[in-house]
Design a protein that fits this description.
There is one protein chain. It is built from 1 helix and 4 strands, in the order E-E-E-E-H. With 70 residues, the chain is mostly beta strands. Strands 1-2 form a two-stranded antiparallel ribbon. It has a two-stranded antiparallel sheet with strand order 3-4. The longest helix is centred in the last third of the chain and has 4 residues. It is globular and about 45 Å long.
């Protein structure tokens, strides 16, 4: 995980996959506190390709169950 294209690595992804409840990929990672604010843009290395990412506020699910009823 890095903070800008070509930047130095700044964190580590611990797990990732597709989040069916939110309709997009999710990666859980450790990043320094100064890069952990929601909305911060990062890049994640996925099998050798750098993919744009954004720090999102938790929870990353639908607590009201609205997507299930749609």
């Amino acid at each position: 995980m890095r903070g800008m294209p070509g930047g130095e690595p700044l964190g580590r992804v611990t797990s990732g996959g597709f989040g069916y409840a939110v309709g997009s990929s999710i990666a859980f990672a450790y990043v320094p506190r100064e890069h952990a604010e929601p909305g911060t843009r990062l890049e994640v290395d996925i099998f050798g390709d750098w993919v744009a990412a954004e720090v999102r506020p938790e929870p990353l699910y639908d607590p009201a169950g609205e997507r299930v009823r749609a």
